[in-house]
Model the fold of this input.
Amino acid sequence: MIRSFLYLVVVLSLVSCLDSKENKLQRFLIQGNDAAKRRSFGEAKRYYTEALKMDSCFVDAWNNLGTVYYKEKHYPEALDAYTNALQCDPKMRQALLNRSNTFYELNKYREALEDINKFAASGRDTLVTHLSRGLIYTRTNRFTDAGAEFKKVIEQEPSHIEAMVNLGTVYFYEKKYDSAKLYLDKAIALDPKQANAFNTYALIELELDDKEQALRRINQALEFRGDDPYFLNNRGFILIKMKEFDKARLDIDRSIGEDPYNAWAYRNKGFYYLTMNNFNEAIRLLKKAERMDTTVSNLYYYLGEASFLAGDKEAACDYLKKALRKREISEDTFNGKCMRK
Done:
């Protein structure tokens, strides 16, 4: 799983000579923002909630409450808060951007794209728009479109590190590894602690079957962000490939504990059980990943293999047909397993 960059907007305010109710609302907002800045999220939520008791359409409080939930990785609650803000003010740009990010985290890419397009139509902020669209296109395997969006960012801001890393990621998915490394190296030259670049580098090395180098690269990423669930999950996958199964499971379980919405982690845990010949558990976890996000790569290939080994050829061939459509397997592989008389 590739770690992505998203941007949230918090609404700020200042107290001036306003009427009593408005004055109290603004004070609650400022106190909530101060608590959120200190990462005292429970306190922040209390202040925002007090403001909303006074005015159920205080959109700034709804927006910032959503952002607190988002930072806590409570994405359904964040989605509700941003939606409430937009029901009160459908043109609130901050909430449109933030809800788009939340839909993205919940793997609801159509809705995420709709919101970012509304955000773009309501005013100028092309860098954020291009970055957000690029991320959504990447997740939905629209790699040509994704690359075009990230290139637009780099055209406007040639040293934009996040765009470089994300463009390198697109090239990784397209198996254009030299081009991927070119942009990742540029990002690392600008920021030697660019953990996301090392993370993508690790996956490239794994694809090139250099497991030791892949492990070295992912450890570099974790050196800078040791509790990142995406990096932990990727290291777990690398360790499975290296047959370090106990260490792999620890990393994947830690990843799920940090981010229970990451479908890739459930895919990797399913793959772990597949390698352990526990096919029923593998299928259960892979189906969970499928319910969360059908765009996860090799998901249907692993489901097909696990179903075959569990003795369910009919289900296996249904999954492998989907894997064939996603180009996870070749026609020869599919025919060899499913077209035999």
In short: The chain is about 75% helix and 0% strand. The first helix runs from residue 20 to 37. The two ends are 38 Å apart (CA to CA). The mean pLDDT is 92.
